[in-house]
Predict the 3D structure of the following.
Amino acid sequence: MKRIEAIIKPYKLDDVKEALVEIGIVGMTISEVKGYGRQQGHSELYRGAEYIVEFIPKVKIDIIVEEKDAEGAIEAIASSAKTGKIGDGKIFVSSIEKTIRIRTGEEDEEAI
């Protein structure tokens, strides 16, 4: 099993969700996060005053998929989250050793 974490622009969340549902991935966890990458934040004007935004608001999507579904999920996220501009985000993929559904005790693929 694979864990896929994607950090994307907030306004792309609906597009990414739709793309994942289209390929059969319906379970996901969404978190609002802040951070920065190469852009190192940016400056904005508010009521005539300039201020620095050091941490950019993003959305983090966590999904767990069977190994055979990982590439399709990665492609769906990447294509639906891409704007071609700086700050589109990142996708991280890692292995999951064990999954347990608390309610039933099912394990691994059955627990997804």
